[in-house]
Specification:
The chain is mostly helical and 299 residues long. It is built from 14 helices and three strands. It has a three-stranded antiparallel beta sheet with strand order 1-3-2. A hairpin with a 2-residue loop joins strand 2 (289-291) and strand 3.
């Protein structure tokens, strides 16, 4: 059945009411946060929240926005400062992409985060989710916002599957078909679906007895079948190239602004070839810079 044929379940109203009663008190949901940082605060928080738990993001977000409260302020920073401030949030290319977006916002949009989804998509490091999240949660526009948690709620409540399939454009079409017509209510529905997936309709141990959609959930109605998870699994972190990259980058951050002699970069790493591969990949990604047998954060 095509996504456009889906009807919003009768639990849409209970979901909104559930969200207003149960939503976590997170910085980016507070009025004062939006008053202080506007769409820039939303954009930074969405960059940080990609593949990173909320509890780790909150202190980094506060420090980041204290240092760079506007895109214009961040655009004046160096790549080294940005990578160092990113600290241990993981996937550090996000820091460079955010820096690039800040420069583009400053130069193309006079320092104001654009509202238009296509203009947001044209910025560095911004994809379908982030562009629509900014348009919806910062500006109040009506768009489908679909993250991993939302996709899991849709898979269970609408499609009767335990886990969602691989992400696709179809997810946006399905969410669009379920959104309330009013922009304000659609924003609440977007946020509520994400919150439900994060706190109740969780991947491993869903709390169905606490779910406001249980009466309409196709997965529950089907007897909670253990449908196969077809998504690609991420390799374990321990012993991976990602771990080696993190170790190298951590040493460079600790040494900054000084450079580290290449032979002294994590010299006790158990796999020298993996360490060298990590160094090469960091240089290729613009996260490190080599010069005269020295390695440093990008200058």
């Amino acid at each position: 059945m095509p996504p456009t044929s889906h009807r919003a379940p009768t639990g849409v109203l209970p979901l909104a009411e559930w969200y207003r009663r149960n939503a976590r008190d997170l910085p980016w949901r507070r009025l004062e946060f939006h008053n202080d940082f506007g769409a820039w605060g939303t954009l930074v928080s969405e960059f940080m929240l990609q593949q990173t738990p909320v509890a780790r993001v909150i202190p980094h977000l506060d420090a980041w926005l204290t240092r760079w409260p506007t895109p214009r302020a961040m655009s004046a920073a160096t790549p080294a400062e940005v990578v160092q401030q990113w600290a241990n949030l993981g996937y550090p290319r996000r820091a460079l992409w955010l820096h690039g977006a800040a420069i583009e916002i400053t130069e193309r949009h006079d320092g104001v985060v654009p509202r238009d989804v296509d203009a947001l998509l044209a910025l560095s490091g911004i994809g379908d989710y982030t562009a629509r999240a900014v348009a919806v949660f910062a500006y109040g526009d009506r768009h489908p916002v679909v993250d991993t948690n939302t996709r899991r709620v849709l898979a269970r409540a609408i499609e009767g599957k335990r886990q969602p399939s691989a992400a696709s454009r179809r997810d946006l079409a399905l969410m669009e078909s379920l959104l309330p017509a009013a922009a304000a209510e659609s924003a609440v529905f977007n946020a509520a679906a994400m919150e439900l997936g994060a706190t109740v309709c969780t991947a491993r141990a869903p709390k169905c007895d606490r779910c406001p959609l249980i009466a309409d959930c196709a997965w529950v109605a089907a007897g909670r079948p253990d449908t196969p998870d077809s998504r690609r699994r991420q390799a374990a972190y321990e012993g991976s190239d990602r771990q080696a990259r993190g170790a190298v980058l951590r040493m460079l951050r600790d040494a900054a602004p000084a450079a580290v002699p290449l032979p002294s970069v994590v010299p006790d790493w158990p796999n020298p070839r993996q360490r060298d591969r990590a160094i090469d990949s960091l240089i290729a990604d613009g996260l490190a810079e080599a010069s005269e047998l020295l390695l440093s954060l990008p200058r």
